């Protein structure tokens, strides 16, 4: 009896020791994987990095090929663990090869989570190519916008495509809508019923390159047929390759939204937040730029602020923030400098203010918290700042 008791006790000790070793290994493995995520996918708004570790297995889903390779390299250091790393969306088996997609409606919202109660992060426009990263058990999907931004939207908001189907869309003649607002009509007449609304930047296929009565015949990504006025649209590739990013053009685009409401997460004529106005102005001039203030401030050329606004150039981005005690800056607001101390920004509505204390439009709150000025015009191209004509999502 004593011998059996001793064996049981020894077994329990060995099991406890093994469990402790496995727990230590798990903690070490998870720590190393998290370090990889911090290095190669530091911004969850732009990179997916999901980790599940359990029962001797580790699985990582990421949009970063460098992160994937780094995780797989850990396998040599943890031979007792089954380590799997997948590059999404291409290696997501649940998508059956349909990870390409085109936005169906004039604007769609991207949420921070698979629920309408979560924060609205950004928008995407009709005809915009996106990537489907993941599906959920409900009607939500996780997508990545052409500007890199990741968020949840409903399944019906986009039209999934295989690579072959995407190639056909890419090679089709497309038209971009240029007016702030518009409609797709059921007949080549603005007296006919509408099948969809439109906002500036929406893209549709020019169906069989047909024109009638001053209207183009068009097809939406989900197959609806209709007509749009020729005068307010342009062939997409011609538009994309003919854009010229100048201070005049940037300010003109921003001023198109004067009086439009502040909408959190908005990037369209229906309403914009502060960085959404910047996003709209650059998009309308054919440029891809990062979405949020805290991201934008890392791009471009830093402008010397020692001479105040007299040293700024029209088109410079004014970044406002607050120092949080014991923490980094809170990058809270952005506007576009338009000259003579004035800037345009979205706060309540899109409007203009001044940094000059002698101006009747002086904005003392923002003037006090101007902490950085960034020049994007003439700045080197980067992964997230470049002409839309060079954006891989569009497949040009």
List the helices and strands and how they pair.
Elements: H1 2-40, E1 49-54, E2 57-62, H2 65-73, E3 82-87, E4 100-103, E5 107-111, E6 120-125, E7 129-135, E8 140-144, E9 150-154, E10 158-161, H3 163-171, E11 174-177, E12 181-185, E13 194-199, E14 203-212, E15 215-219, E16 225-229, E17 233-235, H4 236-241, H5 247-255, E18 267-268, E19 271-272, H6 274-284, E20 287-288, H7 293-296, E21 301-302, E22 317-323, E23 329-339, E24 342-347, E25 349-354, H8 364-368, E26 370-375, E27 386-387
Helix pairs in contact: 1-2, 5-6
Uncertain residue ranges: 6-21
**Overall form:** flat
Average the pLDDT over all residues and give the rounded result: 92
Tell me, what is the CATH class of the largest domain? Alpha Beta
Figure out the total of helices: 8
Instruction: Give the name of the CATH architecture of the largest domain.
Output: Alpha-Beta Complex
How many structural domains can be distinguished in the coordinates? 4
Radius of gyration: 26 Å
Helix/strand/pairing category: alpha+beta
Instruction: Give the CATH H-level superfamily of the largest domain.
Output: endopeptidase domain like (from Nostoc punctiforme)
Main beta sheet: 6 strands, antiparallel
């Amino acid at each position: 009896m004593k011998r059996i008791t001793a064996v049981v006790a020894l077994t329990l000790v060995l099991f406890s020791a093994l469990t402790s070793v496995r727990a230590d290994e798990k903690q070490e493995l998870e720590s190393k994987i998290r370090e990889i995520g911090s290095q190669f996918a530091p911004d969850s708004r732009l990179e997916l990095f999901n980790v599940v570790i359990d029962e001797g297995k580790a699985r990582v889903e990421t949009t970063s090929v460098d992160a994937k390779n780094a995780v797989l390299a850990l396998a040599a250091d943890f031979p007792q663990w089954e380590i799997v790393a997948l590059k999404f969306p291409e290696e997501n088996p649940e998508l059956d090869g349909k990870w390409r997609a085109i936005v169906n409606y004039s604007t769609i919202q991207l949420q921070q989570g698979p629920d309408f109660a979560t924060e609205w992060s950004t928008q995407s426009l009709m005809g915009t190519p996106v990537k489907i990263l993941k599906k959920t058990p409900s009607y939500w999907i996780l997508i990545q916008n052409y500007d890199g931004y990741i968020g949840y939207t409903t399944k019906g908001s986009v039209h999934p495509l295989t690579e072959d189907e995407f190639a056909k869309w890419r090679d089709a003649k497309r038209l971009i809508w240029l007016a702030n607002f518009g409609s797709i009509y059921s007949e080549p007449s603005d007296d006919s019923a509408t099948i969809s609304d439109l906002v500036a930047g929406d893209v549709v296929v020019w169906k069989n390159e047909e024109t009638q009565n001053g209207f183009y015949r068009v097809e939406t990504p989900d197959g609806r047929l209709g007509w749009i006025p020729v005068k307010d649209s342009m062939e997409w590739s011609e538009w994309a390759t003919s854009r010229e990013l100048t201070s005049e053009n940037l300010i003109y685009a921003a001023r198109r939204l004067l009086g439009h409401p502040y909408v959190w997460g908005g990037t369209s004529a229906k309403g914009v937040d502060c960085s959404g106005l910047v996003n709209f102005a650059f998009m309308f001039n054919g440029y891809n730029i990062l979405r949020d203030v805290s991201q934008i401030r890392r791009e471009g050329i830093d402008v010397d602020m020692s001479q105040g606004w007299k040293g700024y150039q029209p088109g410079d981005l004014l970044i406002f923030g607050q120092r949080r005690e014991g923490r980094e800056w809170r990058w809270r607001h952005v506007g576009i400098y338009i000259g003579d101390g004035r800037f345009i920004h979205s706060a309540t509505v899109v409007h203009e203010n001044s940094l000059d204390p002698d101006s009747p439009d002086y904005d003392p709150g923002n003037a006090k918290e101007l902490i950085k000025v960034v020049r994007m015009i003439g700045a080197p191209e980067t992964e997230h700042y470049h002409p839309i004509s060079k954006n891989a999502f569009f497949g040009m």
